[in-house]
Amino acid sequence: MQDRNQFKLTIIGPGAMGCLLAATLYKQDCHVSILDYKPDRAKRLKKAGIQVVSLKEAWTAFPNVTAEPESLGPQDWVIVFVKAAQTADAIKRIGPLVGPGTLVVSLQNGIGHESALSKIAKPEQIALGITSQGSTLLNEGHVRHAGSGPTTLGLVIHNPEAKDRLISLATLLNNAGWPSQVVEDIYPYIWRKLIVNVGINALTALCGLTNGKLPQYSETLRLQKMAVAEAWTLSLKKGITLDLSLEEAHDMVNSVCKATAKNRSSMLQDRIKNRPTEIDYINGAITEMGRELGVATPVNEVLTLLVRLNSRLGWKDPII
């Protein structure tokens, strides 16, 4: 196996998670870069570094940051951490990073990213994943590590060589302090994460509540259960093997609310900063698939429409 500092890894997007991972890998002497689409910001980040604070420590890392993908060349791994709605624009810029041996890995919220990524990489070069690492962007290049958790990775199409490369990535992440595993079928994990997001993100954004407050109100708890039930029913229709009863799905979402009680969901953070949300790739995706498969999803549709409307209006009411 190559020495870890001989690997080439580029993270797409200097958001909260992208900055956290880049700083974490840099701390372990890994050859890591961040590709930004804003040249001025890339220059500032390269000069000032990435600042990370957690309950245990604080440090500054200086990974390579650039807005010029041609300067990086083909990578061993390209990890996509941009918001779901930005994927189409991001892939237009990362062609120079993708060679015959490159593995493109999406660690984004929502579903369906492999379709967009297939425009710049062969299906056997694409991997999907989920992570329970938590990060909040405090300021440009300044993040708070809000909590640790497992990262799970899997290939879109089985390929022995690609699997070896994915296992090497998991090893790299494990050595950097990100507990990671590679699984044969990633889609049940993607759907479990999707169901959690369906039950939390839109409601926290609409109500201005932290995750832990959702189960404390009968109204939000009921809405959460109805939205989760629709997503769970849809997973059965699609033949996804969740190995979860509906009650267990509700318990899973409730457990995440408790474990991340003080966290503001990514969609609530988008609301606070008046940024576009990922609603169309979470609750909106459930609604679209429901229409295609004949599964009723009225609660997810209402949540989607309300988030879209409030986004258009600029989220003018105060945060609780």
Give the CATH superfamily of the largest domain: NAD(P)-binding Rossmann-like Domain
Q: Strand count, sense and closure of the main sheet?
A: 8 strands, mixed
CATH architecture of the largest domain: 3-Layer(aba) Sandwich
User: Biggest sheet, strands in spatial order?
Assistant: 5-2-1-6-7-8-11-12
CATH hierarchy class name of the largest domain: Alpha Beta
- What is the global morphology? globular
Q: How many individual domains?
A: 2
CATH topology group of the largest domain: Rossmann fold
Oligomeric status of the shown chains? single chain
What structural class do helix, strand and pairing data support? Answer: alpha/beta
Count of runs of 4 or more consecutive helical residues: 11
| SSE arrangement, N to C | EHEHEEEEHEHEEEEHEHHHHHH
Short structural description:
With 320 residues, the chain is α/β, with parallel strands linked by helices.
What would you say this structure looks like, in words?
The protein has 11 helices and 12 strands. With 320 residues, the chain is an alpha/beta fold. The protein has 2 domains: 4-182, Rossmann fold (3-Layer(aba) Sandwich); 187-313, N-(1-d-carboxylethyl)-l-norvaline Dehydrogenase, domain 2 (Orthogonal Bundle), CATH 1.10.1040. Strands 5-2-1-6-7-8-11-12 form an 8-stranded mixed sheet. A 4-stranded mixed sheet has the order 4-3-10-9. Helix 6 (187-207) runs parallel beside helix 9 (266-272). The longest helix has 21 residues, at 187-207. It starts with 8 loop residues before the first strand and ends in a 7-residue tail after the last helix.
